[in-house]
Structure formats: C-alpha cells, structure tokens
Amino acid sequence: MIDDGELDWEDIRAFLATARSGSLTAAAQRLRLSQPTLGRRLKRLEEALGGPLFDRLPNRLELTALGRSVLDSAAAMGDAAAAFARNADRLAATAQPVRVTATTSVSAFLTLHLSDLLAETGADTGTGLTILSTRTALNLAQREADIALRMDRVPAEGDLVTRRLGRFGFTLYARRDLRDDWSGRWDGTPVVGLPETRRRPSQSGWVDDIVQGRGARIVARLSELPMRLDAARRGMGMTLLPCVLGDAEPALVRAIEPPAALCEDVHLLVHRDRRDSPAVSAVVDALVRLFHRHAEALAGE
To answer: Taking the model in full, what pTM does it have?
Structure first.
C-alpha cells in the first residue's frame, strides 16, 4: 500500500503534463521546468508507484498500463487543484492581469485596438491585460489563460462558456505597384506562401492550390503573420493576410475578393468558474463590443 506521504502533488502534476503532451520537452515548457527536473519528478513518482509510467519510444512517450490506470485519478486531482486556484483568484483582494489567448491574426487585431480595450476594461489603471499569441490551445481549466479566442474549432468538452464573436475574412494582398505591374495576369507572379502542408482545407493549402492553378510562383514561405505583412509591404510578392489588417495598410491592395472558403468564425471561451470575476467579465464585455464595432472590417465586407 502506498502511503499518501510518499506522493508529491508536483510529481503528479509533472506526470499529468507529460501524459497530456506526450513529450518531455513540451511538458517541461508548459510547467516552466528544465527537462532534468521534470525527469527527476517522474522517476520519483514511478518509484512511489512501483513501476514505469511511460514507454520511451522514438520521438514520443506512450503510457504504460500503470500510467493509464492512474491517469484519470491524476486528472481529477489536477482539475480540483485548478478549481481551488480559480476560486482563490476570485476571492483574492489583489488584482491580477486578465490573460487572453488568441491566434496571431486575432492577437494582431486586438493590438490595433489595445488602447480601447485597456480604457474600456479599466486595465490601463487597474488589473492590466495580457495577450498570449499562440497556436497552442491553452487550457482554461488549468488556468493557463482566463479567456480564449479560437477560430472555428470549439472544444466539445469542459466546463466552458462559449460565445461567437464574429467572422474573420482572409485574402491575398500585394503592394499597389506590384499589383499594377501584373494587372491581374498571374503567370509568374511572386507569392509569399505559408509553410507547406498536405492538409486540406487549410490556408496554406488554399494558397498553394491557387498558385498552382493560376501559374504564379512561390518565392518564399513565412510562418508568421508579421513576417508576411512586412514582406508584402516591401513588394516581395502577394501574400495571405486577414482583411482587417490588409485593408488598413495604405500600400497594399487586394488581389482578389475574400473567398468564402477562408472565412472563419471567432469564438470566445471562458471557464464557468471565472466568468463572474469582475475583471474577466469586463474584458469579455469589451471584446464583444470591439468585435461588434468592427464586424464588417473583420469579415472583409
């Protein structure tokens, strides 16, 4: 029988993060630990439980039978700890910044209107606001963020409150003089693409398909929106941008109208335990108003 005193919550937390990510590197980054420290915690838990929790396979970890048998209990402990922390946050007298996680495109839009958000939420003089730009779906239940703005895919599980904010349109933009040079003739037109993928539908796949179908040419592939925007400004070629950013650039013009295939719904998600926090509620309301005010620009209409 295992004595409760032999088990350390930090060791169980290390196991849970590793099981969810399938990678020591990703788990260490999520927990802000070094890999050796994470490895020591996993080894300590394995010694307490009497066996290995993971099979170390090339490029990934897989749970052993023992690991699978304790995963649900570890997850329940993690959820309980997160609920305790959320409740403590709600009752704490000191204000904490409200953390909003979003994709790069949505984060760029929020940054354009940051002064409005800060003023409407009181964050300029009170709690503060943190915007986390990432493609990774941060876990609201585990308090990795307070509010998530996600495109199209909304989690079906979890104690989350969701709200559709609006539509995000995308299309190809080019510097005005470049567009005037090719005058709609695509043969040989330079295009700054996204990282190559076989996945369809996808933004990168759509760009590659239209390039191939119209005889244009990919001159570079850039993964991040700010890099593609800068390349378009400098006349390196046409590239895919969200309409709300591309239309705001005086030097850029649309190559085509926004295709319906690239329009994406933006949803706001907040954990039920956090929605009644005055600071979180203020940011939610401000985001709803912001997206409503700019609905046409966001959709590219």
So the answer is: 0.67
